[in-house]
Specification:
The chain contains twelve helices and nine strands. The protein has helices at residues 3-6, 10-24, 26-29, 54-63, 79-85, 87-108, 112-122, 148-160, 169-179, 185-194, 197-202, 265-280; strands at residues 33-38, 67-72, 129-132, 135-138, 142-144, 180-181, 226-231, 242-248, 254-259. The strands form three sheets. A four-stranded mixed beta sheet has the order 3-4-5-6. Helix 8 (148-160) crosses helix 10. Residues 87-95 have low confidence and may be disordered.
């Protein structure tokens, strides 16, 4: 698949696979009835969805040439074909897991957290950790991963791997917690997903679209509405090291009030109120 095709949504990729198979085997199919079983329920309603993109319209034209019946079959009822289709991938995952455990075993000898946990186990201290084949396990089945580089490798496998397909932070965390453990694992997964370029480019917003920005009303006279800002970390002068800038939105006249970086909101409000009542009157906003 090209880079553009790899950014398609999941149901579009699966429909593309169906179209590709129909075109490839059209000389075998002819006018025969074809039943397509899929674990993606969205494909079942492809022919009846009201809005179609240009490529989806082309796919519908191709489907119209065949007698195709798309049926939904849940993944739990489709375990044998699913396992056969992923046989090579599962073999690679198993081999990679064995190599990872060897690296973890070597790195654990240098890790301070692992050394402390081993010492607690040897002293008989009650702990959620236990040793097995030279590896440190958390709560019976979760392997402790010591180094940042290994953690990044596992995060990439559980998020970018072909068996997971860029799941969200919650799904990635769930996959990690099934087999691995390290402190702040959830935060690591969330940070990784936030920095994933594919997720940022392809994710869909599930929130209501925000409205347009609303401008502030135009003031009718001077000093009815003001804006404030601060200039901080200035060289000290007469005991002050910051300036509060008050600008009239109507005339653009500005007042510069000396203050301090550590000034509290209460002091700033009192200072601005005194300046307002003395020189500018009372503002509306």
């Amino acid at each position: 698949m090209s880079e553009t095709e790899q950014r398609w949504l999941t149901h579009e990729k699966e429909m593309w696979a169906v179209i590709h198979c129909l075109k490839t085997w059209c000389h075998y199919i002819g006018s025969k009835d074809v039943v397509v079983c899929t674990d993606n329920v969205t494909l079942k309603y492809f022919a009846t969805q009201p809005k179609l993109s240009s490529k989806q319209m082309r796919w519908q034209n191709t489907l119209a040439l065949f007698n195709v019946d798309i049926r939904h079959k849940p993944g739990k009822d489709n375990v044998v074909p699913d396992a056969l289709s992923r046989k090579q991938q599962l073999r690679v995952v198993y081999v990679g897991e064995m190599e990872l455990q060897k690296e973890v075993c070597q790195a654990s000898r240098r890790d301070a957290f692992a050394k402390e946990a081993r010492q607690n186990i040897q002293n008989g201290t009650k702990s959620h950790f236990h040793l097995q084949n030279g590896l440190l396990w958390y709560k019976q089945k979760r392997l402790y991963v010591p180094e940042r580089k290994m953690r990044d490798t596992i995060l990439k496998e559980c998020h970018d791997g072909p068996l997971v397909g860029h799941g969200g932070a919650k799904r990635t965390t769930t996959l990690l917690k099934k087999s691995y453990y390290w402190p702040n694992l959830k935060d690591s997964a969330e940070d990784y997903v936030k920095t994933c370029l594919n997720c940022q480019q392809n994710r869909t917003l599930n929130k209501k679209q925000v409205g347009l920005l609303q401008p502030l009303p135009i003031p009718e006279g001077p000093w009815e509405s003001v804006s404030m800002d601060f200039m901080v970390s200035l060289p000290p002068s007469r005991g002050f090291d910051a300036i509060m800038v008050v600008v009239d939105r109507f005339s653009k006249m500005a007042h510069f009030i000396p203050t301090k970086d550590e000034a509290t909101p209460k002091k700033l409000v009192g200072c601005s109120s005194h300046m307002s009542s003395s020189f500018m009157g009372f503002q509306r906003t």
